[in-house]
Design goal:
The strands form six sheets. This protein has a four-stranded mixed sheet with strand order 22-23-1-24. A four-stranded mixed sheet has the order 2-15-17-16, with helices on one face. A four-stranded mixed sheet has the order 4-5-3-14, covered by helices on one side. The protein is α/β, with parallel strands linked by helices. 52% of the residues are buried. The chain is elongated, with a radius of gyration of 21 Å.
Length: 416
């Protein structure tokens, strides 16, 4: 089992290339089954979750060629409408294939998806959205059996602006008859990237980035070339790493507007962030002042995927911060590990009260999920002494060789 050994206390200085977005590339991969023509995708990150999605697509009959960060996918000989259960349970994002396989095959079978154990993450919103489009969905023995032979465009009102449900309905609707309108749609930048990809394939989609998305069904989609957007969660993670350790880093490929909610929570007297000529420059002194409150919300609010990393930052900042997690009910699993390092954090339900400490001490800790693992990695970078982060397979799901990224800017971190 791989682990990180980190010698903390080093300032970060240098350039970081922002990887392609995990949460954009996975639904884009799923959308590739909507055409039998060749799709060429650039800026694909080298992640465990991407490999898992590729394995599922291969089982469905999709051919995939890899050339560095480029993938060439073709679903010309798609052989199955059943998403393999043993693979789907490894990857939460396998649920995106429900909409795209329905769009292509008009039926689909999928096991309930897996991924990080950070909460229930029910897919009832996905199911209701598909049922609103006349898809017959039967739930039995841990599987969903979907019949989309009578699928038609309808108004779909989501009870919550779920990213996954929004993308699933988009994928199901592009080849259906009539117009689908998604109300209370998620507004995340990854939704906009999926719209860009679908329109490049010939789909008629508009409104992404707002609460109403309009999809006019077409008879056929075609191949295209596409470049995946930068990963805003990685961007925010590297901003927080710089704020924790102090130093000056440059993020190439990022967009400050997509992490605006994070930038607003950082102490501007100790962390200066500006964007110029397509790069983001972060200048930070270790030990800012905590904001009074941080509450996770759907975009453009503070992202739940940066909550754990922000907890690590707050643990070493001055003052007290109250962090409220509104998205997932089990997303403070990193807190006991941070406490091993000396963090003063009290959790009651979905609320964490963080009292900043002058320093953290290196310890052996264990990653329980993707973003919690990233938080422990950041805490180790700033802690005194040696930190060992165990079970880093979770971090590999969302960060492309993060130890190399960090070593390039002065961190002392090795994988063993």
């Amino acid at each position: 089992m791989s682990k990180y050994i980190i010698e903390g206390g080093n300032r970060l200085e240098g350039i970081i290339e922002v990887q392609g977005a995990k949460n954009a590339v996975l639904p884009i991969f799923a959308a590739c089954v909507l055409t039998d023509e060749e799709i060429r995708i650039s800026n694909v990150p080298d992640l465990a979750d991407v490999v898992s999605m590729e394995n599922i697509l291969k089982e469905l009959g999709v051919t995939i060629k890899k050339n560095g960060r480029e993938r060439i996918l073709q679903a010309k000989d798609m052989i199955s409408d059943e998403i393999p259960s043993e693979l789907a349970k490894e990857l939460r994002s396998s649920v995106f294939l429900l909409g795209s396989v329905l769009g292509r095959m008009k039926k689909a079978t999928v096991a309930y998806p897996g991924g990080c154990d950070i909460g229930l993450r029910p897919i009832d919103i996905h199911i209701k959205g598909l049922r609103d489009m006349n898809v017959v969905v039967e739930e039995k023995s841990g599987y969903l059996y979907c019949d989309g032979s009578k699928m038609i465009g309808q108004e779909v009102c989501l009870d919550y602006p779920s990213v996954g449900a929004t993308e699933n309905v988009m994928l199901a609707a592009v080849l259906s008859t009539g117009e689908t309108v998604i109300c209370n749609a998620a507004r995340e930048p990854e939704i906009i990237d999926l719209q860009r990809f679908l329109t490049a394939m010939g789909a008629k989609v508009r409104g992404a980035g707002t609460s109403r998305i309009f999809i006019e069904g077409v008879a056929k989609l075609h191949g295209c070339d596409f470049t995946v957007m930068p990963d805003r969660i990685c961007m925010g993670t590297w901003v927080l790493a710089t704020a924790l350790c102090g130093g000056e880093t440059v993020l190439k490929g990022g967009r400050k507007s997509e992490i605006h909610s994070l930038c607003c929570k950082l102490d501007k007297s100790s962390c200066h962030i500006k964007e110029e000529n397509g790069i983001i420059v972060i200048k930070a002194e270790q030990g800012g002042r905590n904001p009074e409150r941080v509450t996770t919300q759907p975009y453009p609010g503070f992202p739940t995927d940066l909550q754990a990393q922000f907890c690590a930052y707050a643990a070493l900042s001055r003052g007290t911060c109250v962090v409220t997690e509104t998205i997932f009910e089990n997303r403070f699993r990193h807190v006991p590990e941070l406490q091993k390092m000396g963090a003063d954090i009290t959790v009651e339900g979905r609320v964490a009260v963080i009292r900043g400490m002058p320093y953290l001490t290196g310890a052996e800790v264990t990653a329980r999920d993707l973003r919690g693992g990233a938080a422990l990695m950041l805490a180790g970078l700033a802690a005194q002494g040696k930190t060992v982060v165990c079970d880093i397979k979770h971090i590999d799901r969302g960060y492309e060789h993060p130890e190399e990224t960090l070593k390039n800017v002065g961190a002392k971190i090795i994988r063993v």
